């Protein structure tokens, strides 16, 4: 406001100034220009406030609801309710439970030392003839796989876990192998990739009738439904794992073998190996320190905590004389087949070869190392991984559907098409196309694959 | 601005006014009050604009990125890539492929009429002794289940499909039953709940060694891991389904039986029943019209297209004399157990009873009718369904983990705890706790459940 001159009498009387008049006018009437200016300012602020309000509302309740759409809000509610219950299930941790890590001085053990497992097991088998150690004249085998008990971080992960177990169910049904799908953490210290160790031990001791425990990762798929593991080849061995002697003993490479798919004989030696393998596993300082040792000693290994694969390589290299006489490093077929070099060749394989070979011509197992569909971040582009996994799944599924007269329209297609008409003599096709039966004419049987 | 008086000479000369001075001052100096006011206005607008900018940016690139975090944008990219490849896989339909529905004049057939299946199958079994019709002195059984080939609309759906098949794998391993998990649409006309018909037929004809085909929905879980189907009770029957004669024949109720879990003997009669059952199934006008017939004739049935369950009820009611002599309506145990009345009683069951009963005291199967975790909209609140399914799964899992010395911390918890210490004599527990073996002392074996 202006300066108000003194009114009335006094020594310094001056004429009333316009300022005074202006002040009075401000009280009674605002000059038009300023009125417009003020209105304009207010309008600007009003518009801005309204805009802010819309943005905030949009973020909270959704544009769809502003325009009256209800299906997207219902679906959203389903998702919210789902997330709420999943969060509740996940957060069941005891508030008093503190994560305690073993330190490097502590000794970790998978369990009390068992020293006479071979003898005990043999006696048990003799006294329990109703649980033979062979199935269809083959040593009894138990395939073990699994995944964490909670939903995957990436929703598509659960879908591919489902397809992966279906794939394993198919192979195991055809070949008379039992399956254990583990979704429990048996040992708090040995979590993550190490979880297979306490699991294998527990299963060996609980299933004495089983001759071979076959661990297989959830991201490994069977792609040769005909091929069978040549178990007789391993009569003198107790651990069969895909690997390369040169990479192991000449190069000390951290990928000299792969623990995504391997066989453990159910025997004392295996229990002892598990005991020797486990010490690098307990999470926390032990695993971290062990990781440094492994990185320092294994060629190409990045710096990260100890993983079971590197630890096994290190153990077998450093204690070669103690263990290697019973370890078979298999690479004549793909007990583990690294996916990147295989998935683009499926059409070529169908064209040139047939199931039953198990090697680079028709891989036994295609293993999606590094894809991690269950987690948030894999080592490869998501699209590349998912489309490749879909192709591998369908490539295998075609071999199963063949008995039923179907195949997938394309390797990337979930849809199937008929390749044989229905008949009033279905048993002729059973004899011809069931994998479990010796082929009548090898070419005919496999022609449609 | 003020009014500027004329300067200099002229008739209306007046003293220069303060206004003029003010104007000049405005050009050269704004009165302090108005300066503050103007500044304040500008400040308000600046703040609002800044706020709007932040909101818009937040909506586009995420707060995390504003603060330097990259993980949320990476995760978002993973989701986008995932959705893109899934859309590509889903959209593999042939653009030239037009959905053609059979009309009500057309005749639908599951396949060419087979008339001598019993004889053909018998000859085959005699000539294929390596594929016996019994397993462990029990008729050979094949459990059939499945789900669509595409990811679930609700992401959590795939996780519960995974848990459901793990549950079935456990039961079937313990009881020597093979599993087929179907993810293919064998017949375009009979899609949805009708898909089990062509699937059952195809499996019967492809697996002559199988005596019983057991269809089980993906939303049905085994909750009694000890109970076995008393197959000898059904020696004179070919279809075993959970149902109530009173509801069927006195009330014509549309829920008189449940096709979520039933057994079909592999025989000519079953092929004939499938042929008689299928005609209401082809989607389109046939299924719609059939739905009206069913709603008109079955008590309590809402108006919707024909479903396989209602169609079977209608068939058995209207052709009672033709079929019912070979149909066993079982309700002495829960071959199908409606979940809502069971899931809240699990703790009470654990307290009072033990596995092996299979009935309301310890239900054989808990069936989550109406929950539809794979779809977007079930008939019950999502949280109620998911938490109940989690409880049922863990209730069953406890019975499996018992052999290994573990149980879940609570029925809603994925975490497990040890209930028996490791021992150097593991085979003692095997004898005591393995479900497959007769209990040493019934109370001890089941105590920890």
From TrEMBL, chains A, B:
Signal peptide per UniProt: none
Sorted UniProt keywords: Glycoprotein, Glycosyltransferase, Golgi apparatus, Membrane, Signal-anchor, Transferase, Transmembrane, Transmembrane helix
One Gene Ontology molecular-function label: hexosyltransferase activity
Pfam families cross-referenced by the UniProt entry: Glyco_transf_34 (PF05637)
Gene Ontology cellular component annotations, sorted alphabetically: endosome; Golgi membrane; trans-Golgi network
Annotated region described as Disordered, given as residue ranges: 1-30
Localization in the cell: Golgi apparatus membrane
Claim: Transmembrane is one of the keywords in the record: yes
Gene Ontology BP, a term: xyloglucan biosynthetic process
InterPro entries: Glyco_trans_34 (IPR008630), Nucleotide-diphossugar_trans (IPR029044)
Family that this chain belongs to: Belongs to the glycosyltransferase 34 family.
Name used for this protein in its record: Xyloglucan 6-xylosyltransferase
Species whose genome carries this gene: Coptis chinensis
